[in-house]
Specification:
This protein is mostly beta strands. The protein contains no helices and 15 strands. A hairpin with a 2-residue loop joins strand 7 and strand 8.
Length: 213
């Protein structure tokens, strides 16, 4: 279930891009309402490497739910609100609202960010299973907008740049691991206008070299 936060940010740990719906059972508080395999697909019974979702409470503003890992019964998410009933069994609920926190299977925090009516708003952060922060981005109305940063697993800086209305804008930089800057690129509305290496020599780069979303 990891990566509701950045969705298509190159985060191998998150699979919330998949939306899978099943028939919703009769709703009873403090019961399991859905099972998912490790890829985020709906399944009819628990899978050792999968997860399950519980309905904690039916509220006036929606449904308070929480997801757990099957093999450990430890939390995969903190409790969160889903507004629409039809999203209760979806791995990527579109009507999520409020602050959302995800956890790795080993108990380390995986990611966090705020949603308003299913859209990302503000700062979204992701951590590795070792507890190191490795991605942080700003969103506005579900579009990347503002600073974007990625780090290597050892915590050293990897990528730094900025988005404007969902597109790369201005100067972006990539560092060597535990070392100096490898190269820089200037973007205008998502397109690379120019790029140089660490010595200022012009080079050819593609957007794939700056993948963050």
């Amino acid at each position: 279930m990891l990566t509701l936060l950045f969705r298509s940010v190159a985060l191998g740990c998150i699979a919330l891009l998949i939306t899978a719906c099943t028939q919703i059972p009769q709703l009873v508080e403090n019961t399991t309402i859905a099972y998912f395999d490790e890829r985020g697909n709906n399944i009819s019974k628990p899978s050792p490497r999968g997860s399950y979702r519980q309905l904690l409470k039916i509220q006036s503003n929606g449904y308070l739910v929480q997801s757990f890992f099957v093999n450990t019964n430890t939390k995969q998410t903190d409790p969160f609100i889903i507004h629409n009933k039809e999203d209760l069994t979806a791995i990527d609920p579109l009507s999520i609202d409020g602050f959302f926190v995800q956890w790795h299977r080993n108990g380390q925090k995986a990611g966090s960010g705020h949603f308003i009516n299913g859209k990302r708003q503000g700062t979204f952060t992701e951590w590795t299973e070792q507890g190191t922060k490795w991605a942080e981005m700003q969103f506005e109305n579900d579009l990347a907008n503002g600073k974007a940063n990625l780090w290597y697993e050892d915590g050293s800086k990897y990528i730094e740049g900025q988005y404007l209305a969902g597109k790369e804008e201005g100067e972006w930089r990539i560092w060597q691991q535990n070392g100096p800057i490898r190269f820089k690129a200037t973007f205008v509305q998502g397109s690379i206008i120019s790029a140089v290496d660490a010595n200022g020599k012009p080079i050819n780069l593609s957007k794939d070299d700056f993948t963050t979303k």
